[in-house]
Amino acid sequence: MKPRIKMIIWPLVYLVLIINVCISFILVFRSFYYRSIFVSGSSMEPTLHGNTSDFVDYGLIDDHQNAIKNIKRFQIITSYYPFPDSRDYVGGYKRGGNNVIDTHEASYKIKRVYGLPGETIRFTVDEEKAAAAIAVGSPYSEEAQFLARQALGFEVKGSGENDSFVAQELKFKRKINPEKIFTYKDFEYALKDEEYWIMGDNYSASSDCFNKKAPIYLDNIVGVLISIEGTCKIQSNVEVDPTDDGTKVSYKCTNRKRHFPTYY
C-alpha cells in the first residue's frame, strides 16, 4: 500500500471506530439513565399517538428527582392519578411504601402540565366564538376546530399578593369538542404546594384534572417526557389477570419501528 493511501485510509478507520464507540456509549447511557415508555390511548392526540389497535408512539422519560422537581409549564409528563375512581389508585401515593407507584405494573397517564405549585389557573370562554364553533355542525372540521381554539383561553396567576392573571399562549395544537367549551367558562383553581394541574391535548377524550376538578401531587409524577423515538405494537401478557389493587395486565412494546427522534 502506498504511503499516501495509508495516510488517508488509517485516519478514516480510526474515525469510524471512534464514532462507533461514541454511539455505543450513548445507547448504553440512554438505556440505563432513562426509562422507556409507550403511549396508550388517544388523550394526547394529535401530539402523541396511542391508538392501541394500531402502532403507538414510544420513547423515553427522565424519572430522576431533579427533572421532576424542575418541571416547566406545558412540558409533557407521566403520572399516576390520586383519584379514587382511577384504576391505579391505591389509597394515595407516597414513594417507598408497599404501593403500586413503586412498581412498573400500574396504569399511568401521559399529559401536559398547565399549572404549577402555588399558582392559580383559570379558563375563559369567548361565548360568541364558541357558539360559532358549535353552529358549524361538524365538530372536528377544520373550521370548527379553528373557532374552538380561539374560543378557549387559559390564564395563570402567581402566588404573590400583587400578582394578576396573565394569558398564556397555547402553542400546541389542541383537539376539542365545541360542545364542551362552555364547561370551562370561568373555571378557576388555586394550587397548593406540590400540586400540579395536568390535562391531555385531546380535550374531547382525556380523563384529567379538569374532569376530576382536582390536581395531582408531586408524589404522583413518574417522569418528564424526553423524546419519542418510534412506534410499536402493544402486546399484553394474557397469563396475568388484572387485580383489584390497582395493578394491571403486563404489556410489552413489540415490533418497534424507529424514526428520527422528536424531543420535548
Architecture overview:
With 264 residues, the chain is α+β, with helices and mostly antiparallel strands. About 9% of the residues have low confidence. Strands 1, 2, 3, 4, 9, 10, 11 and 12 form an 8-stranded antiparallel sheet that branches. The protein has a 4-stranded antiparallel sheet with strand order 7-6-5-8. The chain has one domain: Umud Fragment, subunit A (Ribbon). The N and C termini lie far apart (50 Å). The protein is built from 5 helices and 12 strands. Helices cover 22% and strands 28% of the residues.
User: Would you list the SSEs in sequence order as H and E?
Assistant: HEEHEEEHHEEEEHEEE
Q: What share of the residues lie within helices? A: 10-25%
CATH class: Mainly Beta
**What does the main sheet amount to?**
8 strands, antiparallel
CATH homology superfamily: Umud Fragment, subunit A
Question: Rough shape?
Answer: globular
Tally of domains: 1
CATH architecture: Ribbon
Amino- and carboxy-terminal Cα gap: 50 Å
Radius of gyration: 23 Å
Indicate the CATH topology.
Umud Fragment, subunit A
Query: How would you state the average pLDDT, rounded?
Result: 80
Structural class: alpha+beta
How many helices in DSSP terms? Answer: 5
- List the uncertain runs: 94-106, 240-249
Strand content: 25-35%
- Count of β-strands: 12
List keywords for this structure.
264 residues, globular, Umud Fragment, subunit A, 4-stranded antiparallel beta sheet, 5 helices, alpha+beta
